[in-house]
Amino acid sequence: PRRIEGKESQIPSEYYEVSCKADAGEETKHFSGNMVMLGKNGLWCPNAKVGTSTVYRALTNIPGWIPLHKGKPTRCYPTSNQSLTAPCWYHNEHREPLMRSVTQMIKHGKGHELCDAFTFTFVRNPWDRLRSAYLEKIASGKRTLGDDQEDISLADFVHFVYEQDANSMNMHWRPISTTCLTAGTPQTHYDKIYRLEDGLNEQLAEAMAWSNLDYPNVTEAYMSRPPSLSERIGNYTQLEGLQSSDELVKLVAEKFAEDVAVGNYKFDEYK
User: Fold this and answer.
1) N or C: which end of the chain has fewer CB within 10 A?
2) Is the pTM of the predicted complex or chain greater than 0.90?
3) d(Cα 102, Cα 43) in Å, to the nearest integer?
């Protein structure tokens, strides 16, 4: 595989420290800057290529949630420069913000509202997630990695990702542990870490219930068909030019080791 000089992500990975009340006085909690407050009690950390588009669409089913703009909704990004009363996406009939980024809340002195929220995120098998990012963003030509963009193979892409610093990666293939602080130091405490492979709709309904949101659980299936185990193995081990059949498997396992551990994932098992 050839070396590709890449570009840095336009959306940084950052976190915030918040002093929260505890039984023994106060404790410091860490919150990923990528997290989004849903209503007043749900704190979700979105990850690209982990059902995020489906979750955003599903939120339109919550009674009283009105899109801020017509057409494709604007997502809650940490680089948002909106005022506190201007929600990232939705407002109710009283114009109250129903979706706010953690960055937005911190900058406007509302960090204390994060302390007691129900925190959750979704994770995905990193081999499948990286393959999905390659097919949808690179092979399709939607995203460029650098000047040398012609005929980039999956092997080229895996080597490119392996050599990148996790904090400067594009969000579509940045490790979930980096985006959402699911592992390492500092670390965000999550009440629930859901695995995408265990069923998005059912788990999302549970998360919405814990977030005290009136979610009707009528999500449509927008996700593409996940690869079979044989497809995964073929995509990663049967490419031309590999030094060994497990070359790419090991690179992903090493680069995304924390994601593998958090989700208890294995390359040669479907779930």
Assistant:
1) C
2) no
3) 9
| List of E strands, the chain | 15-22, 25-32, 36-38, 42-45, 66-67, 90-91, 99-101, 118-123, 192-195
| Total residues found in the chain within this entry | 271
- Evaluated on CA atoms 270, 185, 163, 50, the torsion sign reads positive
Give the burial class of 21: count Cβ atoms within 10 A of its Cβ; 0-12 exposed, 13-18 middle, 19 or more buried: exposed
- For the stretch 221-245, pLDDT in tens is 445 566 788 889 998 998 877 888 8
Distance CA 127, CA 254 (A): 11
Q: pLDDT per residue over 123-164, tens digit each?
A: 999 999 999 999 998 888 777 776 556 678 899 999 999 999
pLDDT computed for residue 219 by the predictor:
53
- The answer to whether the CB of 98 falls within 8 A of the CB of 90 is yes
| Amino acid in position 135 | L
Cβ–Cβ under 8 Å, residues 186 and 201 = no
CA distances from 222 to 44, 53, 186 (A): 19, 8, 33
The span from the CA of 204 to the CA of 95, in Å, is 25
10 Å Cβ neighbour count for 9? Answer: 17
CA gap 167, 233 in Å, rounded: 28
**Separation of alpha carbons 182 and 178, rounded Å:** 8
